[in-house]
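Before any further analysis, backbone shapes were mapped to integers, which produced the following:

***
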Amino acid sequence: MTTSQELKDYEPMVEKIIFDQKELQTLKQTIKSFADGNINAKELKSVLLQCRGRMVEDVNDFVSYVANTIAENVPELDKSNNEFSQEELPSSQVEAQLRAEIKEKNELLEIVAQRVSKLVSKLIPENIEHVNEVQKLLSKEEITKEMEHCFTRIGAKEWVAMCFLNDSEFFVKVYPKLEEVYKKRFGKSQNEQESMSYKMKKLGFPEDVEIAVINYVKARNKYQHTMTELSLSSMDLARKAFSKVFVYLLLDSMESSFLLDNREKLYANLTKFFSKQLTGNPAFRKTIINELKTVFQVD
């Protein structure tokens, strides 16, 4: 049957499908150019459709590869079992093993499908031909109201409150908070051995968010096993992971058209909000504002 290690072997292919770094950089520049009014909707649509076409082609290749791998492994399943010959092993048991094998291999395909669907739906509005006609530049008050709705949807008050915990308490509680994000989306995990890395991938988080979370988890595990004094570098990793997930959830809860049409005002309002809310915690304020600068591509 497929092991977690075998599933991990496919990850480089998944990352190539979803996160082609050169393509993502082109997309960022194109969306920024559109938001700044330097290109029209038709040009934006052309670039986005090229991106989607590349994804579809790579996904087809990936599915073919996995299907061929499953087909090649089917006879090996019986041959590799030295305890039973074909005559000794009931056909129903063989069928059950094959079904389990295919089911586990399909888990990875589900993750790929979720990522592709989520990324495409975020990047490509349904009626992009008329995107200029439906653009709506909101007032400062309207943006503030929309932000409040998004804060309510993701429970932002709890996230902000965590910023004022003492270092050791915060460091330990970040992990349960990440687990909570997963449970809200998928319910309680059926497999307690699922890694946080796997859960972040299933949630569809961008690669930089995944990496930040993995680095924090490594530092947390080391801290729990050694019970040494909490280091500044470990706290920085915890703040970074927490901030990246928080900002991602916040922006992910907003409509893509809202983000595109009101980019500058939204960045200004979010920066003002966090600067005010986190006045008593300069380290956290700096981490979150830096993350906003990265996401909104502000120098």
In short: The CA atoms of residues 128 and 249 lie 24 Å apart. The chain is about 75% helix and 0% strand. Residues 4-131 form one domain. The chain has two domains: 4-131, 138-295.
